[in-house]
């Protein structure tokens, strides 16, 4: 039985909306990103005798076929917002290793089968995942919770200081049907 087939229990004063399934019994995500070319992989930390080890990226996961040209980190204070940004040629791979963030995506590629689609995911140290974002997909990040978030990006092309592959829009732009703030 799907969530949509469930009826409100008798005697309830309000109808409400039933939750949709988000994970399998093994805690794997059931909702593949609806944006063409975006991949998402939840990662399970491994308990060790002195903490946890979390793999961030492995070639055999086949999330994409691009090389890693640069790895950088970004700290985000609680409530910080990056604003919307996109790249013409660079592929981003975002991983939040401390704190928690909401990554929001908008497919702005007119030729894409998922053009106009918006997708969000909350990831962080307690629920590690890597999100691969192809060129042309607008994305913004909001730091959630009371602690500083630490976001890693494993891009396929290193940042070009003389000609940055970076386009920006404000977090509340009218050009994207979702406000980051």
Task: Tell me what the structure shows.
- This protein has no helices and 12 strands.
- The protein is mainly beta.
- The protein has a single domain, classed as Jelly Rolls (Sandwich), CATH 2.60.120.10.
- The mean pLDDT is 91.
- Strands 1-9-6-11-4 form a 5-stranded antiparallel β-sheet, with no helix packed on it. Strands 8-7-10 form a 3-stranded antiparallel β-sheet, with no helix packed on it.
- β2 and β3 form a beta hairpin.
| CATH architecture label | Sandwich
- Topology order in helix (H) and strand (E) letters: EEEEEEEEEEEE
Give the rounded overall mean pLDDT.
Answer: 91
Rg on CA atoms, Å: 18 Å
CATH topology: Jelly Rolls
**Lateral arrangement of strands in the main beta sheet:** 1-9-6-11-4
Helix percent reads under 10%
Shape category: globular
Number of continuous helical runs: 0
pLDDT < 50 stretches: none
**Number of beta-strand segments:** 12
Strand content is 35-45%
Distance between the termini: 36 Å
Question: What's the CATH class, please?
Answer: Mainly Beta
In CATH, the homologous superfamily goes by the name Jelly Rolls
Structural class: mainly beta
**The biggest beta sheet, please?**
5 strands, antiparallel
Count of spatially separate domains: 1
Function: Catalyzes the epimerization of the C3' and C5'positions of dTDP-6-deoxy-D-xylo-4-hexulose, forming dTDP-6-deoxy-L-lyxo-4-hexulose.
Catalytic activity: dTDP-4-dehydro-6-deoxy-alpha-D-glucose = dTDP-4-dehydro-beta-L-rhamnose
EC number: 5.1.3.13
Protein name: dTDP-4-dehydrorhamnose 3,5-epimerase
């Amino acid at each position: 039985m799907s969530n949509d087939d469930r009826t409100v229990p008798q005697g309830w004063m309000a109808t409400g909306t039933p939750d949709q399934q988000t994970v399998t019994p093994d805690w794997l995500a059931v909702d593949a990103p609806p944006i063409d070319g975006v991949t998402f992989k939840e990662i399970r930390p491994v308990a060790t005798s002195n903490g946890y080890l979390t793999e961030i990226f492995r070639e055999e996961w086949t999330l994409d076929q691009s090389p890693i040209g640069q790895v950088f980190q970004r700290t985000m204070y609680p409530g910080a917002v990056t604003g919307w940004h996109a790249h013409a040629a660079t592929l981003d791979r975002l991983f939040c290793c401390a704190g928690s963030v909401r990554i929001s995506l908008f497919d702005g590629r007119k030729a894409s089968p998922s053009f106009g689609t918006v997708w969000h995911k909350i990831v962080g140290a307690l629920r590690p995942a890597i999100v691969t974002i192809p060129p042309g997909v607008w994305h913004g990040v909001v730091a959630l919770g009371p602690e500083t978030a630490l976001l890693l990006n494993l891009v396929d092309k290193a940042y070009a200081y003389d000609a940055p592959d970076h386009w920006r829009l404000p977090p509340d732009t009218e050009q994207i049907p979702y406000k980051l703030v």
